[in-house]
Amino acid sequence: MSVRGIRFGQNKMAEKRKELIELHWGEDLAALPLWDRRVDNGFSTVPRTLPYICRVLEHFAEKGKPLTQTYIALWCRMSDEGLIEIREKDALAYEAGFSGSRAVTTWASRMKVLAQAGFIDCRSGLSGDFHYTLMLHPLKVIKGKFEGNSQNDDFRKLVSRMSDVGASWE
After folding, report:
1. What is the CA angle 155-139-59, rounded to 5?
2. Does 112 share its domain with 77?
3. What total of structural domains would you count in the chain?
4. Which of 42, 47, 84, 141 is most buried by a 10 A CB count?
5. Which residue from 58, 59, 56, 61 is spatially nearest to 155, judged by alpha carbons?
6. What is the DSSP letter of 82?
């Protein structure tokens, strides 16, 4: 399908969703605080497959040391170019759910696992080993890790969700 055809289909679906919203919420809609990513600032775009990506991500975690919160905290800080400049490790540790005297150490251990698994690529800077962090395309990373192992249940569910939302490995 051409880019033009895809856009036409997306516009048609957007119109259908607007009609459904109007049908179900009608006059109440004006009083509801809806978020519009095209208008509101301070929001990030996330893949619709993110919950499935996070399930697969946990296959790379050590038992009792989940990676999802750290990954989501990074995603929320990522620029459109995929770069995160980590100047305040304490803030990222907090955003990832860690507190106390070992918060930054615990966060850094999760960052190392994410880097070793290939989900992020880091360069050192003034704030340490993770000052410059690139978020790598998670679907491409997962495809490389699970190629030839399509029997993994979380991987198969990710593939199914990708089909639902029109995502691809490329």
Report:
1. 45
2. yes
3. 2
4. 84
5. 56
6. S
Q: Is residue 30 part of a domain?
A: yes
Beta strands in 111-153 (DSSP E): 120-125, 128-135
Are 143 and 53 a contacting pair, CB within 8 Å? no
pTM for the complete prediction?
A: 0.84
Which pLDDT tens digit goes with each residue over 109-149?
999 999 999 999 999 999 999 999 999 999 999 999 998 87
Both 30 and 58 in a single domain? no
DSSP state of 28: G
Domain span at residue 64 reads 50-165
Q: Whole-angstrom Cα distance, residue 87 to residue 75?
A: 16
Confidence label for 5 from pLDDT (cuts 50, 70 and 90): low
Instruction: Give me the mean pLDDT over the 82-110 stretch.
Output: 97
> Which of helix, strand or coil describes residue 152?
coil
Residues 111, 71 share a domain: yes
Q: Is residue 42 a part of any domain in this protein? A: no
b vs e for 68-101, b when ≥16 Cβ sit within 10 Å of the residue's Cβ? bebbbbbbebbeeeeebebeebeebbebbbbeee
| One domain for residues 12 and 72 | no
